[in-house]
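Pipeline run #58 for the internal structure catalog. This entry was flagged by the ingest filter as a single-chain record with no existing model, so it goes straight to prediction. Upstream metadata was stripped on purpose; only the residue string is passed forward. Reviewer on rotation: M.T. Logging verbosity set to normal.
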Amino acid sequence: PEEAPKTAPPEEAPKTEPPEEAPAAAPPVEEVPEEVEEDEAPEDERHEEEDPEELREVPSLGTGGKPVLNTHVLYTITEEELAEVKKLLHSKQGWTVKKHCRDGRVRLRKMRLRDADKALTWNNGSKKIELDKVTEVRHGTALDPATVGQSDKRPKGMTGTDVLRRSADGHKVARRCFSLILLDRTFDLECADEDEAAKFCSAFQKLVENAHHAP
């Protein structure tokens, strides 16, 4: 009898590797806002620091919180000249002078003395400066003590005030200017010429000194 044909052994099914386990999902990361230091404002509220060369002078306070009057006399006014200045400031027309403003512009103002020479007014008396609040009357060429040592370029300091230094014409007219320095601002005036600036600067030094010593 013929032998039955040999049948090939069944092929083994290919071994399949067990599926890889999917990596465990990382736990969600909680977003924590960045901490803002106490002395640092948020980015959208942060302002650039002022240039040390543009720092405004902050006069010191004396006993009782009253401003200390700093005097630096460049011109000694006579009694007759002081009387002339006061007469003009008491007159109806007043004293017309250029005022250098904080926005960089220069405006004409008519100044008058009121309140027993204790207040300087303008805008028909709607605005005024109380002279006993003035801490210094500074000529445009006098040193600004707040700028001493604040800049490597100018370690000896700069003259005038922050407003005059910012003004487009400030450096050109410094000899015709003087400023009334208050605790929170400066009042910067440009006269007709250098002689008028020297005389009125000295006159206001006298007026401010008198206001400080008034009862």
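catalog note: Confidence is low (pLDDT under 50) at residues 26-68.
catalog note: The helical segments are 79-90, 162-166, 194-213.
status: ready for reviewer M.T.
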